[in-house]
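Hi all, posting the design record for the shared folder.

TITLE: backbone redesign
STEP: 1 of 1
STRUCTURE INPUT:
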């Protein structure tokens, strides 16, 4: 099954023809549970995990007993490096560790299909015939987006490497250019508009629907 969507002419905003998009990628019911789990995993994988605090065994200072146990009128103390002293060690503070969460490929693909279907249902997916930014100028790209009546945070998916478009979008915080395999689920969800250039949507659908490789039996 396919979905028929209009193809806008580059720089004109008019519907030039129709494109057939795979309904298994752009027309499914979004799986919210898989979407949530994949987003949580990708955000966790972005964490460096380098936060660190020093315990009482790591802070500078003598371990000598500060005064004798009895007879001074003070509370008993063992070391100036104890957590309740200024400059002492930190109790239960963060230490370097990994936050990586593994997500199976099938779940990642389903999450992408769910997000694309949600964008399509919301009218946030646009297909254009071409993107002519050979000069690599930001103004040229902005002029074409304005002609297409596209604004806000935009993800532009090109069918193949387009150095001119990448260079033109390099100065724009809200425009990101990527190939069908070059963007993440987070970038897709955060985008207010998703623009597919040429046959980029077909190439993305082919990647998301690619059959799994058979598992080779161990000898």
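Okay, here is what came back for every position:
SEQUENCE:
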């Amino acid at each position: 099954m396919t979905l028929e969507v209009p193809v806008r002419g580059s720089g004109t905003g008019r519907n030039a023809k129709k494109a057939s998009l795979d309904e298994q990628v752009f027309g499914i019911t979004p799986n919210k549970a898989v979407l949530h789990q994949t987003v949580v995993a990708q955000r966790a994988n972005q964490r460096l995990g380098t936060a660190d605090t020093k315990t009482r065994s790591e802070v500078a200072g003598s371990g000598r007993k500060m005064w004798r146990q009895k007879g001074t009128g003070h509370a008993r103390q063992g070391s100036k490096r104890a957590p309740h002293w200024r400059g002492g060690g930190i109790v239960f503070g963060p230490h370097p560790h990994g936050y990586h969460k593994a997500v199976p490929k099938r779940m990642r693909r389903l999450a992408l299909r769910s997000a694309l279907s949600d964008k399509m249902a919301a009218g946030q997916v646009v297909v254009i015939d071409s993107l002519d930014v050979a000069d690599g100028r930001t103004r040229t790209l902005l002029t074409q987006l304005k002609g297409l009546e596209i604004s806000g945070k935009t993800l532009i998916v090109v069918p193949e490497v387009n150095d001119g478009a990448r260079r033109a979008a390099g100065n724009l915080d809200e425009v990101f250019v990527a190939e069908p395999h070059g963007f993440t689920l987070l970038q897709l969800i955060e985008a207010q508009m998703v623009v597919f250039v040429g046959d980029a949507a077909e190439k993305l659908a082919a990647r998301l629907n690619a059959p799994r490789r058979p598992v080779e039996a161990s000898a």
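COMMENT: The beta strands are 2-8, 15-22, 125-128, 154-157, 175-178, 193-197.
Let me know if anyone wants the other runs.
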